Model the fold of this input.
Amino acid sequence: MAYESVDQLQKTLAETVFTYAEDKKKAAGRALGTLVEIVTFYLLKTWGLGASVAIERGLEEYKNPDITHNVEYSLHPVKFVERLQLATPELPITPAKIFKYFGERLQHLHGFEKKGHALLSSSGVLRNACVLGHENDVVLVGLVTLLKGNSLELDLVGQYRSPYAMFECKRVGVEEGNKKGPQTIEKAKQGAYVARTVSSLQKIRTHSGELFGVIPKKDGTLYSKPYVTLVDEVVRSKDPELLRHFILTVGVVSNHGNWFTSDNPNKELRVLAQSYDWLLFLTDDGLAEFIRDILQSDAAGVTPAKAAFLASYSAKKKENRFTKVQMALDADKVLQDYFAANIKRIEKWFNVISPKQCSLERLKGQIDVLAKKDWRRIFDA
Done:
């Protein structure tokens, strides 16, 4: 099924899924926002970044630790990965069970202050990027993968607290029937503020209007170059002083109503483009294609994902089974397989708004370079 715009898609969901809701279209709009987050999350996993991802973790403002901001996804250097397998798992899978079952093998992790979150609930709901504990500068995160049969693979990942990149999703615009979206510019300003304050790389404009980047150095001097040039230099650099507090900021925006395209930006989009290092636009066609392939398809292979979505948005919902944080394990397998099989097509769902004349491949390259740096040396320097 083709849709003229995301607004039309939102109306279709309102009439087919959210018939029980008092405000059907608002409920459908929130669901679309969740889908944007899910598409972004599985894009990152398919790029091989699953072990680096943290969800809704608070990031400190640069040199202003009293203020933190939760962001959809932050990418953290990986200090270690401990891979375990459970042939006959007994649900729920909790930190206490893991340390009891693999006690001797995990002795080096007993110093971590444990959290109580279950990686996998009794009803088979996975908690993505589940925080199991923390110790000094490292956060212990649990990842679960469904193998053949009912066996599970568990990765216990030690992530450094300081991230090297962050992704935020913003779905802003004006809904059909409204002349103005009063909250949309506030969402844009909020995202812009976070993007500009969490990294050591600061943006300034010269008297001529050119955008420059500035990084404060220990000796009190300011290191400055044209912005895009400086971002590239920092990414390629081995200098701990340039890298230690640098965070590559990425915004992902999608349409809200028949409002704008990446070629026809409104004020909100311009604000975000001036704030993030990278701004990506998830197209209407891309979001509609995901919904068609996964949520509206009758193919047997995607049934678990479709069922999880409907269970999460029914009038009798008991728990979330299709969100960025909580995902039914069998739905997670469907989505991982779908993204892996279609990643080249899925990457075409995204347009790069800023930097101008740059590609998604270049962003992937920058993230890959950052992920592979010797962060232990950088943080200890």
Summary: The two ends are 56 Å apart (CA to CA). The chain is about 35% helix and 25% strand. The chain has a mean pLDDT of 90. The chain has two domains: 1-76+162-199+247-381, 78-160.
